Amino acid sequence: MKMKPCWKKEKPIELERKIKSNDSAYNESFNYANNYICTSKYTWYTFLPKNLFEQFQRIANSYFLGLLILQLIPPISSLTPVTTIVPLAVVLTITALKDAIDDIQRHRSDNRVNNRLSSVLRNGQLVEERWHKVEVGDIIKMENNQFVAADLLLLSTSEPNSLCYIETAELDGETNLKVRQALPETAEMGNDIGELSKFDGELTCEAPNNRLNKYEGTLKWKGEAYSVDNDKILLRGCVLRNTMWCYGLVVFAGQDTKLMMNCGESMFKRTNIDRLMNVLIIRIVIALCCLCLICTVAFGIWESTTGFDFQLYLPWEDYIPGTSLGTTSGTKEAGATVLALMVFFSYVIILNTVVPISLYVSVEVIRFVNSWWINWDRKMHHPQSDTPARARTTTLNEELGQIEYIFSDKTGTLTQNIMTFNKCSINGKMYGDPYDPDGNPMEICDRTKVDFSGNHMYEESFEFHDVRLLKAVQNKDPHADEFFRVLALCHTVMSEEKDGKLEYQAQSPDEAALVSAARNFGFVFKTRTPTTITIEVNGVEEIYELLCILDFNNVRKRMSVIVKKDDKIMLMCKGADTTVYAHLDKNCGDIKELTTSHLNEFAHIGLRTLCLATKEIDSNYYNEWKKKHHRASTSMVNRDEMLDEVFEEIEQNLTLIGATAIEDKLQDGVPQTIANLALADIKIWVLTGDKQETAINIGYSCKLLTEEMEEVFVVDGESKEQVAKQLQNAKDMMSGHSSVEVVSYAGTATPMQNGNSTEEFGGYALVINGHSLVFALHKDMEQLLLETGCLCKAVICCRVTPLQKALVVDLVKVNKKSITLAIGDGANDVSMIKTAHIGVGISGQEGMQAVLASDFSLAQFRYLERLLLCHGRWSYVRMCIFLRYFFYKNFTFTFCHFWFAFFCGFSAQTLYDPFFISLYNLCYTSMPVLVIGIFEQDVNDIYSIKYPKLYAPGLSNLLFNKKVFLHSVFEGVVSSLLLFFIPYGAFNMGVDPTGHDVADFHTYGVTVASILIPVVTFRLAIDTQFWSVFNPIMTFGSIIFYFCSIFFLYSDIFGNNWLITTTYTGAARHTMATANFWFSLVLGNVVLLLPVVAYRFYKQDTAPTLTDRVRLRTKLSKSKSKSRDLGLKLSRASFNRSSKHGSIRSGYAFAHQEGFGQLITSGSIMRANRPLDGATPIRQNSAGNGTKTKLSDGNLVMNSSPKNNIPSSSENNVELVGYTVRS
């Protein structure tokens, strides 16, 4: 089978797709993509031209290529081309090797995926085929726990009613199972290979697109047309779960699958420093041309007035007009002009060392080693999954030290998508915190765990720390009994037995946690049919008749079941407090007040809450209501609205039972990480596909949203006008309450905020829904969205598509000119990961699509703190010191040529020996600067995290910018001036004791070079703040190596041989034998270095930076001295602050979808019943260790502990009077 190459040119735009099953000839006529995927950039035959083309897009490489061409012209070059050829070749080769290694890894990853095996129906038989040979129109068989090979139309499954279960973790990071159902007509084919081989359905569907949650198509088969939607589609990247087998028709393959369409194009990323370097190099080249032009004009004047008359000693070439050789006629002015033009290019070659090619060699080496520091960091290694941090690119390290905006996914990135039952309120009494027998609160620990071993169906992984609730159940407390019966009956969970163990399949992790809690307390949901629910209460089986399920939706925010037992009809309801409270009986006032107080406590510590209520229904009333329900459910017009009215009618006068509080377990360290990154002035935006309530709740849990915030603006308009009005109102309100905090790098802050302190001002947050974001991202409104969002401390975008995530990132990236970072774990995050300047993938159980598209990969979100505040900042600091020093030393080195031009008639004569010019950047000064670029640490990792304000210089480009660059240039020019004229004054008119001149051209050049090397080396040592064992070795070793090498190169043995000839033979020995040399060496170092040292001391004493202060504290800590008053008032923020407004938000969040109730009551989702007697306990990953609050053992109110700063009872009573809900 012929494989289509990944580089094939783009096909015409596809408007719709037509597919015939088992008809390869028909499908091939449309030239659909096969299942081969290619995420790599190169092939073996495109690597060299494509890579060179990319490398020469870097201005510096093109510049050096032009210099090389000039050096190949003998009349204008005084330097050998080897000085440019070798460094340029090394740079191109190192970069090419690095790019090749990166691309080879992508090829290997592609090959692993492309060579997976799948069972494909070919010629009436199932054959094993590799994934890359699967084509559109093929029928594939998949078995349990297999990855889906391509986007498939589900045809038949092993499960009843043609259902199958899939896990979409690799697509959206969610680990809860989702249900797909085949058409009943195709499901009849079952596992019959013969029938499947005869299947000749024609599918007309949408063209390939990146919409993960939408699919539209029509299947024509046997003269009938059937609608096909997303519920009948299995997407590539999903995993088949709890389904023995299924068959599917390939509709999209390879690059056309929705998974790959969401991956986007690989972008060539450059760092902010790279972009600045391109600008600086252009300006350096312009300045260089100006210097060369000055030398050219001066040379032309000198040749016209003086040089023409000295052709006896310095003859012009025979092709120059007016030459004394008489070979070419012309005037001396014409000859001087031609020579001046040649000298222009000669000086271009000589002065090009202001930007040597070795700069880029060193940059690549530093970046490569810094990326390995990330790979080797054991503190970013996740031991549970044995996953280290990985730098998947070596070109973006210093960019990590300049991140201003972080865009994060929620599920799988901030959270583990694991729910745990932590607390509850039953009949006005709160449970969940441990107490000793005397009623005193206890710290949560292993010995406070409740022992559930008396229940043979308990789960070993379940944890609860309040034994009072278990005792209430054991004592048959009627309120606790009713509470857990509601949890065991009011849900849409399915059960099954595997290996003698009872397992639950929940449509949402919330329901799984609640049903699991009921199970462990002795109310075990065992099985269900379309008309019954069977539970086991303390070992006794009870069967309830299921009369009706009042299904959940996002408007109702609740669900109910109506069950019957012993001729008693009960309605059981669970949902958001706002909706349940609105339907309570008026006699529930007291318990409502107590439960509200508990809900506030739960919400304050970030728990997700639901209220439970019941109602006994008269049988006659129910029969009448059932008729209304039947009419509404069978109506063809406004069915949903009619059902809502019927549900509303019966869900009245409910009796409040209590409330549940479950924890959506955050990944370890997420709140601390977000808080510390916020202290570093990094803005965090959460872009999630979850609904609004869930996202807000997690926002509070992870401290992205806080109770201290002045307002949380919710933008949920259904029209463009509504969205614009909501955004404008939010912007006006925030603009009216200006908050300005002037923060200097010295660590001081001056609050200016309408007379209030910054501690009192909590800032604002913005929450915007996906449908509102569609309008907000329009061209005429996106600027309003950006301005409003940037006024907020936190932004949460809910129900967003992968494309919207990328658009939001691009909006900030383009308009704010800020460095952005996107972090996620699923395929739906790939587009924003590739759009941002830096993409970080979370590797783990949620799949590898985000990691494969990322620049850096981490095991958990908490490691982002260390990646940015330590490695990112260190890389930025190292690169800035390196660049400042590199430009300083090369301007110092190069401008000596310029000053020498005034003494050599501007003839392009070099001051230094060509060997020295070639080895200056390659050997003499390269190692010390490489060491500082690799090992430098202004402060250690502990203090880097402890004082996040140290990150501020990177946000403002303080350490290397145009101003800093000009300062380095100025210092280099001044240093070169002193470096040139100190030896000039020492040797001018100097004679030795015998009366001979001590100065000549060679002696002078060696002297200047010998002062230059120690000066620039010790100058770097002054800026070194972290001395490793390598720093002194390279510092003093470079100086020693220089002096040894010039003795060797200028010796009689080496200086004149058949391979190398030099005119400097004996120059080193002669120069160093004079007192003038040693006087110049000492004086030059003192004059050039002493002012720098004095300035450093002055700055640290009068205006120390935050880094200086932290380093002083480090030294004092090491010496065990007391740091009494260092001005270090920056510390990590407290994560449990009392709210000045009170906890008035709702903790409701329920990750549930509409439609499961209908599946259950219709029997579509049912399996065959299997006995569960003797089932043994199973393990579920539901252990929780959420934040615990110390509360009193009373029924009325709660006293806060100082540790958690929970409002006291008096505060709660006051707040309850005006209780409102901010949703």
UniProtKB/TrEMBL annotation:
<feature type="binding site">
    <location>
        <position position="688"/>
    </location>
    <ligand>
        <name>ATP</name>
    </ligand>
</feature>
<dbReference type="GO" id="GO:0005886">
    <property type="term" value="C:plasma membrane"/>
</dbReference>
<feature type="binding site">
    <location>
        <position position="799"/>
    </location>
    <ligand>
        <name>ATP</name>
    </ligand>
</feature>
<feature type="transmembrane region" description="Helical">
    <location>
        <begin position="276"/>
        <end position="302"/>
    </location>
</feature>
<dbReference type="InterPro" id="IPR023298">
    <property type="entry name" value="ATPase_P-typ_TM_dom_sf"/>
</dbReference>
<feature type="compositionally biased region" description="Polar residues">
    <location>
        <begin position="1178"/>
        <end position="1189"/>
    </location>
</feature>
<feature type="binding site">
    <location>
        <position position="574"/>
    </location>
    <ligand>
        <name>ATP</name>
    </ligand>
</feature>
<feature type="binding site">
    <location>
        <position position="409"/>
    </location>
    <ligand>
        <name>Mg(2+)</name>
    </ligand>
</feature>
<feature type="binding site">
    <location>
        <position position="690"/>
    </location>
    <ligand>
        <name>ATP</name>
    </ligand>
</feature>
<dbReference type="InterPro" id="IPR006539">
    <property type="entry name" value="P-type_ATPase_IV"/>
</dbReference>
<keyword id="KW-0445">Lipid transport</keyword>
<dbReference type="GO" id="GO:0045332">
    <property type="term" value="P:phospholipid translocation"/>
</dbReference>
<keyword id="KW-0067">ATP-binding</keyword>
<feature type="transmembrane region" description="Helical">
    <location>
        <begin position="338"/>
        <end position="361"/>
    </location>
</feature>
<feature type="transmembrane region" description="Helical">
    <location>
        <begin position="964"/>
        <end position="984"/>
    </location>
</feature>
<dbReference type="InterPro" id="IPR036412">
    <property type="entry name" value="HAD-like_sf"/>
</dbReference>
<dbReference type="InterPro" id="IPR023299">
    <property type="entry name" value="ATPase_P-typ_cyto_dom_N"/>
</dbReference>
<feature type="transmembrane region" description="Helical">
    <location>
        <begin position="886"/>
        <end position="908"/>
    </location>
</feature>
<feature type="transmembrane region" description="Helical">
    <location>
        <begin position="1004"/>
        <end position="1022"/>
    </location>
</feature>
<feature type="domain" description="P-type ATPase C-terminal">
    <location>
        <begin position="851"/>
        <end position="1105"/>
    </location>
</feature>
<feature type="region of interest" description="Disordered">
    <location>
        <begin position="1173"/>
        <end position="1212"/>
    </location>
</feature>
<feature type="binding site">
    <location>
        <position position="409"/>
    </location>
    <ligand>
        <name>ATP</name>
    </ligand>
</feature>
<feature type="active site" description="4-aspartylphosphate intermediate">
    <location>
        <position position="409"/>
    </location>
</feature>
<feature type="binding site">
    <location>
        <position position="825"/>
    </location>
    <ligand>
        <name>Mg(2+)</name>
    </ligand>
</feature>
<dbReference type="Pfam" id="PF13246">
    <property type="entry name" value="Cation_ATPase"/>
</dbReference>
<dbReference type="Pfam" id="PF16212">
    <property type="entry name" value="PhoLip_ATPase_C"/>
</dbReference>
<keyword id="KW-0479">Metal-binding</keyword>
<feature type="binding site">
    <location>
        <position position="805"/>
    </location>
    <ligand>
        <name>ATP</name>
    </ligand>
</feature>
<dbReference type="GO" id="GO:0005802">
    <property type="term" value="C:trans-Golgi network"/>
</dbReference>
<feature type="transmembrane region" description="Helical">
    <location>
        <begin position="1029"/>
        <end position="1050"/>
    </location>
</feature>
<feature type="binding site">
    <location>
        <position position="829"/>
    </location>
    <ligand>
        <name>Mg(2+)</name>
    </ligand>
</feature>
<feature type="binding site">
    <location>
        <position position="511"/>
    </location>
    <ligand>
        <name>ATP</name>
    </ligand>
</feature>
<feature type="binding site">
    <location>
        <position position="552"/>
    </location>
    <ligand>
        <name>ATP</name>
    </ligand>
</feature>
<keyword id="KW-0812">Transmembrane</keyword>
<dbReference type="InterPro" id="IPR032631">
    <property type="entry name" value="P-type_ATPase_N"/>
</dbReference>
<dbReference type="GO" id="GO:0005524">
    <property type="term" value="F:ATP binding"/>
</dbReference>
<feature type="binding site">
    <location>
        <position position="828"/>
    </location>
    <ligand>
        <name>ATP</name>
    </ligand>
</feature>
<keyword id="KW-0813">Transport</keyword>
<dbReference type="InterPro" id="IPR008250">
    <property type="entry name" value="ATPase_P-typ_transduc_dom_A_sf"/>
</dbReference>
<protein>
    <recommendedName>
        <fullName>Phospholipid-transporting ATPase</fullName>
        <ecNumber>7.6.2.1</ecNumber>
    </recommendedName>
</protein>
<feature type="binding site">
    <location>
        <position position="411"/>
    </location>
    <ligand>
        <name>Mg(2+)</name>
    </ligand>
</feature>
<dbReference type="InterPro" id="IPR018303">
    <property type="entry name" value="ATPase_P-typ_P_site"/>
</dbReference>
